[in-house]
Amino acid sequence: MLSAARHPPAASGVLYLHGFNSGSGSPKAALVRDVCASLGLPCATPQLPHRPAAALALAESRLDKLGEQPLVAGSSMGGFLASLIAERHNLAGVLINPAVNPARLVSDWLGERFDNAYTGERFVIEAAHLEELEALTPERVMAERYLLLLGTADETLDPADAFALYRGARTILHSQGDHGFAALADYLPSILAHGGHRLAPGWSGSESRGIEGATYDRNHFG
Fold first, then answer.
1. Residue 123 CB neighbour total at 10 angstroms
2. Which of 125, 135, 190, 202 has the fewest CB atoms lying closer than 10 Å?
């Protein structure tokens, strides 16, 4: 389902934010870098800290190198952070299975240790994670600025929560799509169009590498 078309000015770059305990080396981040390179478009896919406030600060620090009006995108927890940045800086955003109330999710993990497969970092979820997320979570957003991509079979987050918060956003529902959103490559034309760009003729999502078949469990929300 895709709502009415939006006609934004062409984005000056793309900032992509990975999900919780994922990394800049994740398949989706690599795919975003590849498609931006094909367009000659500046792109940043930073490795984010596990602490939410630090992750937000690092992500915002990358905006200066992406021109005056970058498109900001993110997956899962990265979608939550992307939304915060889009609201603060009046930018267009693309959110892939975004976390809507991440404090509620993280509250179940207090005291648990996580290992990051991309960086080798080990960390424990502390009360400070929860407190930071609660402080950052907005009560409302300007839904019209977003393109929302939701997998209807997301096993981690309820897509109805995102659909409710971002009601009015252009929305794509991927039937039976899971939290990892393995079909991301097929939606890149829509993502780039939301940023005012068109992919070169001949682009095929089926030629893209790395996401299909990837596994996503409670320790990795790419």
1. 15
2. 202
Tokens (6 digits) for 1: 């389902």
Q: What is the pLDDT of residues 10-37, one digit of tens each?
A: 999 999 999 999 999 999 999 999 999 9
Q: How does pLDDT run across 53-93, given as a tens digit for each residue?
A: 999 999 999 999 999 999 999 999 999 999 999 999 999 99
Q: Please, how many CA atoms are within 13 Å of residue 182, restricted to the half-sphere of its CB?
A: 13
Model confidence, pTM: 0.89
Q: Percent of the chain, pLDDT > 90? A: 72
Whether residue 95 contacts residue 73, with contact meaning beta carbons closer than 8 Å, is answered with yes
Where residue 202 falls among pLDDT bands split at 50, 70, 90? low
Three-state SS string over 82-133 comes to HHHHHHHHCCCEEEECCCCCHHHHHHHHCCCEEECCCCCCEEECCHHHHHHH
Question: What is the C-alpha separation between 156 and 218, in angstroms, rounded?
Answer: 8
Strand segments, DSSP code E, in the chain are 14-17, 43-44, 71-75, 93-96, 113-115, 122-124, 146-151, 170-174
At residue 104, φ and ψ (nearest 5 deg) are -65, -40
AA letter at 176: Q
Cα separation of 178 and 184, whole Å? Answer: 11
> Given CA atoms 91, 151, 29, 45 in this order, what sign does their dihedral have?
positive
